[in-house]
């Protein structure tokens, strides 16, 4: 099988607008809104406003939340969403992936306006893009961008609504000998990400992407389930703190009563 590499030009601009700085007649500075250029999804700039849709938003947030939770105890692995990647490669467009998993990172939680590959000394090992109806470039141009940038694995999640019910599909590419080759699903329809040790798939009637830890077979909880767990854990911590405070107050009342009776609560003569 030959390595896969495709590049095509967009014929229409994506929906959205860009804020462009201008100088007003009175000399003050301001901004005006202009339609986005055709390559906005491939090379977003500060001030761009891309219209994605609710399902795209749900899927990106859900993927990022689960992956961050999965790697929460590994300070050398970051999961970023909508962060522009600066390759340091002249002429290569610089997208802001929906989700990027980055290994061997230093100071993971330091705020970043963009991720500069040459400065950081590492690059994403897995990039995930969620395709909207206006983003055919995710399946064409970005394949070539991420191949040239040396991204080991690239997953594309598609959402579509044939009869008003949202369905999902996922496909992937793996870098082999400087070329992208399609990732083949196993008998269960799962794509194995070697870069993360996770399996990705879709299931009929399931909203979003199924993610399973390959080594254990355990699924990663969805964003809603994680939020529910966090709320439950927070409530349990509050209850434990309340019980501790109540026990402390009871002990203080008991010690006070002993002192009133002329008894040292410490047991000293």
UniProtKB/TrEMBL annotation:
It holds the Pfam family Uma2. SUPFAM superfamilies: Restriction endonuclease-like (SSF52980). InterPro entries: Nuclease_put_TT1808, Restrct_endonuc-II-like, Uma2. CDD domains: DUF820-like. Residues 223-264 form a coiled coil. Residues 52-198 form the Putative restriction endonuclease domain. Residues 20-35 have a biased composition (Basic and acidic residues). Gene3D superfamilies: tt1808, chain A. Keywords: Coiled coil. Residues 1-39 are annotated as: Disordered. This is Putative restriction endonuclease domain-containing protein. The lineage of its organism: Bacteria, Pseudomonadati, Pseudomonadota, Gammaproteobacteria, Chromatiales.
């Amino acid at each position: 099988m030959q390595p896969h590499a495709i590049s095509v030009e967009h014929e229409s601009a994506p929906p959205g607008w860009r804020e462009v700085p201008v100088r007003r007649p009175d000399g003050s500075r301001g901004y005006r809104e202009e339609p986005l250029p055709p390559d906005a999804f491939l090379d977003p700039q500060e001030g761009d406003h891309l219209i994605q849709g609710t399902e795209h938003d749900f899927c990106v947030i859900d993927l990022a939340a689960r992956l961050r939770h999965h790697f929460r105890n590994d300070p050398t692995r970051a999961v970023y969403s909508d962060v522009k990647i600066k390759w340091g490669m002249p002429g290569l467009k610089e997208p802001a992936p929906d989700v990027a998993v980055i290994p061997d990172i230093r100071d993971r939680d330091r705020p970043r306006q963009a991720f500069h590959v040459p400065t950081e000394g590492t690059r994403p090992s897995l990039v995930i893009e969620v395709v909207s109806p206006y983003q055919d470039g995710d399946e064409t141009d970005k394949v070539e961008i991420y191949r040239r940038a040396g991204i080991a694995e690239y997953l594309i999640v598609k959402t579509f609504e044939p009869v008003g019910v949202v369905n999902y599909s996922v496909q992937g590419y793996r870098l082999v000998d400087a070329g992208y080759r399609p990732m083949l699903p196993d008998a269960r329809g799962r794509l194995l990400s070697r870069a993360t040790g996770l399996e990705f798939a879709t299931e009929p009637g399931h909203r979003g992407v199924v993610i399973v830890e390959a080594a254990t077979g355990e699924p990663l909880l969805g964003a809603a389930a994680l939020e529910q767990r966090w709320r439950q854990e927070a409530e349990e911590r509050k209850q434990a703190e309340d019980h501790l405070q109540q026990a402390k107050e009871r002990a203080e009342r008991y010690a006070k009563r002993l002192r009133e009776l002329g008894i040292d609560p410490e047991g000293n003569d």
